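To illustrate this point, we now present one chain and its tokenised fold:
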Amino acid sequence: MRTGYPIRGPSTVPDRHAVLALLLSVALAAEPVLLDAGPYGTPLQEGLSRLHVDGCDDPRVTWTTPPRGADADDEPDPVAADWIDGGTLHLDLPEGDWVLWVMQGAPGEHPRWRAGIDGWGVRADDVPVLSTAMPATWADFVASPQHAVAPRPVFRPGETAWDRQVAPAHPWQEATVHVGPDGLTLEAFGRPLQGLVAWPAADRPLGVVRLALVDAARQSWWRAHVVGDGIVDRQEPPARPGPLAVQVGLLDARPDPDHASPDARAQLDLARGDRTSRLLFVHGGDDAGTVTVTAPDGVHVDVGEASWLDATGHPDRRLRPRPTVVWPGASWAGGQGLPPALLVTVRTDAATPAGRHPVALTLHRGEEAVTVRLDVVVHDLVPDPAFHAGLFAQVPPEIVLRDGHDAPAAMAVIDDLFGLMTRDGLDAVSLRYTDWDDRLGWVPEADRALFPHAASVWNALGNAVMVWADPKVTLRSYAYVGDGDVLPPSSVPIAQAAFAMARAATTPTMAVWVHMWEEEGLRRLDAVPRGEAFLARLRAAGGDDIPLMGTLATPVGRHLAPSLDVAFVQGTGRDLEDGLAAARDAGAVAWAYNLAPGQDGPWLAWAAGADGLLQWHASAAVDDPFDQTGRKPAWTHTVLGPDGRVHATVQLEAFADGVADVRVLRAVAAQRRRSRAADALLASLRDAVLDSEPAPASDGALLTATTFALARAQVLAATGRVPK
């Protein structure tokens, strides 16, 4: 039997009565079943047996119907970290009454996105014994227990992020079943299976103790991996009392009083039409203050408060503070127990003359005032506009549930999203339908008002480069293996509707998206002909006048590049470089898709030679920025504020800065007058990015932002001429 991951860090130690109860359970009770579902190679909870797609380490458990597959994510506890989807289990148990405890779900599948589905649960011998459904309306949902893991959690005294976020998100559901002489058949429906405990009903109190010990070990694992591993060593200092002082840092900076100064300054090297951002940490008390800006013509400065969210008074949050949401306005609130942070973004115009342009930011607090001086050096170079980059855009489901797809509030979200993206120089967007799971029953009529509105707004903002329709809800469910049609019955009419909406839009470049990277069939070479047939059917349904694009994330899937107009390649390092080159050789335009978050993704796309980049996700549909427990908050680009407006995060600005970096470096490579020094710097920087470890976690980078910023400045200095 495989052993689990070792438990490290602080743990909850059961008292001697609990230990005695466990010993007695072995002697007195029928042997229980304790399973952690998921593929090999993922965290296995100590004391549980591995249930995998080919069988189980517990010989009493077998598959009577094979599951569809297994997967895992970086969820912060071993039971919830992985899962198995589908299939029917047979448990060879003694006859009698048994208690089941079941955990269902999948990381990234936040319960609040599940409202409206038929429900999920467990069938025992074809009879539902557990069944859960989300409330049908937004108002009911807010009042429900499922809302416990929604954004902006309010901690009670003594609660930790585990108590408030991890445990409620992954509860054990209990049911009592009768096992007949032939054992028990179990099927998890609606959601994947993560964990299963079966205990004789007569000894249920012992089972409760055992389950409590499992949860204590899960919590210990979470503390070791989320709060441990050196994160404690990076605890941020509180605001330093005393005179006002400012620290200037890049977007991966941490507050450090030793680097604060009453006369801070920094040099920013930009091209004409370029942008970059800096964080300002305000040290010296934590009272509120304001900022005034003095900038010359052609240099634009935006200032916003980079909020620490709800870190105040919560020790677990303060271990990993992250200035996330950027509230507009030249002020800071203070009073957070951490140094206030400001985000400053400097932009230049395409017509801004080369040379030095001094910018002054004066911070006021009561009678105090300090000035941060930014020496903006504009080089005689215009960024390459041919590199297109952007994000998915989606109306948050809570708006749809409350008001409907086509309500003014939904339209306002699109207006805000597109305005923020345009401001940041992002010129590509994928409009993703709100109901993005095929079980939610999306129909084209639901978005026929929203889609034209979004297209017209995107065009009015001058972003007529690309707008993409994304009917992933239907096109992700095609079959690659087995008999029968290569398309489910609903795919053709919905694909036709998607093509029709794309054709009716006024945007010059419109395409229909095919999402192919999640399908298990794409890991088999014999699936390629079926994939080609699928894409041929889609073209027949929509016509050749609308470009067809799709994600190719596996080596097998990349064989489908000749069937696409635009191939989106996912990968890391040299593998991504090879995949993009192969797609281009196949005749497709080669874009990168869903690389590392923040600046790292654009840097890697540039180094690997991508023609463009699409990332998740403009409207926070995937991750919760208020959740610091490891669920990829660095992917959250915007949040819906209490004022009903969409607000940017530091992650959005970091992504926009990375895109600006790419456009500048591509422009340098195209310059005839660049020097040998610039060529050497470009080659060295590209190799450094491609050969670095990717950074899917929120705390990490391909390279440090400081290293990249220095290289960027050196490349500009070796190419773009600056008047003396």
About this structure: The mean pLDDT is 75. The first strand starts at residue 33 and ends at 37.
